[in-house]
Amino acid sequence: MAQKLGSQTYLLDQQVYVLAGAAIVGKKEGDGPLARYFDDIIDDEYAGEKTFEAAESRILRDTYFKVLEKSGKAATDINFVLSGDLLNQCTAASYAFRDADVPYFGLFGACSTMSEALILGSLLIDSGAADNVVCAASSHFCSAERQFRFPLEYGSQRTPTSQWTVTGAGAVILGTEGQGPRITCVTPGKILDEGIKDANNMGAAMAPAAADTILAHLKDTGRSCDDYDLILTGDLGSFGSTMLRELLKRNNIDLKDKHNDCGTMIFDLEKQDVVCGGSGCGCSASVFSTYILDQFSQGLLKRILFVATGALLSPTRTQQGESIPGIAHAVCVEA
What we know:
The chain is of the alpha/beta class.
């Protein structure tokens, strides 16, 4: 059983391996700097379907089949699928896995969904309840714009703090035996709300939660930033990343050159007109499931802290004048 460290970190007792990862993304993501790491790039934003929402489910389902293929596992080997997205009632994931014939848990942590899935999947394996778990998440620029902001036809102006929702899905398989990196400890995050009400400034809404979780993890484990090759957030974007650094400095934590953010990695911020970078469940999921795992396989990374962040907003509540709660979950991954 996992051993609790400090206030909110859990040291896993059993070995939890990342057996394989896969990601499928859209054309804009395929034009970005990480293109060669993705398993497939979809040029058609509809992915051969009739709606953007159906396209997102299709991309997520295809990513699931791809990670099964890469891991050498069959669907019958999978004990649970843990997955989510940004849409109401997690319908992208529900429709993606309705024919999978595998026990399924739908998760919503906004852009933190991938790390949420990794934490819960690791604890399921550590408890002995599972041998193999699929963790996956997706997002789609067009479906997210329609739900959270304005239909694309409206042609609304993007603000200086806005981010571009990634079209893509990422998935990994966790298991009890393997050659990949291991998840060794996890730090579930707490909801923080600093009163940010601008739905186009999610980096500011999420940065306090990211700082809080990182501080809790370092305190619980007795580690410092120097104990990690990389502290990877997702998806604060450039504005939220700057805010994170400032918040941690106030607590005498200097990230130095240890920090990077999936939202600033997946796009070229100077050339691709994404303002502060990428966002969406599929952003950190696709970056972690491909590029990060590749860095482990090449021996370039030995230990990272993956801290996916989520803005837990709803259009209805923000239109009612509510602020935006944020959350961040941390997962320690080691070679």
